[in-house]
Automatic annotation (TrEMBL):
Name this polypeptide is given: ATPase BadF/BadG/BcrA/BcrD type domain-containing protein
Domain ATPase BadF/BadG/BcrA/BcrD type: 12-248
Coiled-coil annotated spans: none
Gene3D superfamilies (UniProt xref): 3.30.420.40
Membrane-traversing stretches: none
Alphabetical list of InterPro entries matching this protein: ATPase_BadF, ATPase_NBD, Euk-type_GlcNAc_Kinase
Amino acid sequence: MGLAGGGTGLAGVDVGGGGIRLRIEAGGTTAAGEDPVPAPRRDGRMDLHRLASRVARLVEETAPDLDRLAGMAIGTTGLPGLVPDPGVLWRALGDRFGLRALVVTGDMVTTHVGALGFRPGVVVAAGTGVIALGTDLAGVWNRSDGWGHLLGDHGGGAWIGARGLQAGLRARDGRLGGSAALLDRLTARFGSPSELVALAYAPGAAAHLLASFAPSVAEAARDGDAVARAIWDEAGRELGRSAAAAASGLEPVVSWGGRLFDAGDLLVEPFRDTVTALLPGVRLTPPRGVSADGALALARAAVAGSVRSRPPYVHVFPGTGVSGTGVSGTGFHGAG
């Protein structure tokens, strides 16, 4: 739905390995925008200057007639850990859009809020990568995985894609554990194995390239390929283990988010089975919304003054009566 011309709005931004997704709300209507290019990085960390430029361009393309934004929230991959100075985004975007408040947080937090709506529990966010967050948005902050495609992200899109490609190459070599169905899909998508190798080891977004093959692994699994089905089964179990690991100190409420779960029963069934086995009495709750919806809710809460900074997980910049580095003892309250 388009936005009415002029006026003031709110923006929620989700920044992940698969690109940037945006929700803008103004005058009772919403608009969505997307930039499918992977999040910008420099020396392994998020490049916040380039990110700010891309977010600004996407906002202006999505709502060209909007006068200003009262609040914005950005949930980005790499925070905490790979975002050394979230204030870069405030300095780049605050004056440009007339912001009263800006929230900068991890996409694990916006996915959590999108799924559970400010309620305590565990949310597994699975797209190109994987991270599980168990939190009450106050004193409990349990993170599991989220270590990137070389060191972790077990069960994520890059993990699935890599194992699918490996199974195709095993079939090419005649090794045990190979899948002719996945080899066929590998060559259809990437050309010869040599061409795939050149792409996979070129500088750039290797995780994004690997994750782009996950839909082909899903297609092969639905067509009856046992190797592909086993990859998805193990992915679901890995996500379930991450959820259980993040549940300490919380009521056993678990939800999920991220585009990987669009695979449906291929992923959800082994995920549910694993969570149920590891967390007796668990309440599995379908997500209320996605990460961009959670970011929009955080923007609304920040303007209302009901969200405070909790470094290193959440940073709120001027507009709520506290500085971007202040910490409230109560965290989130009265929101959503």
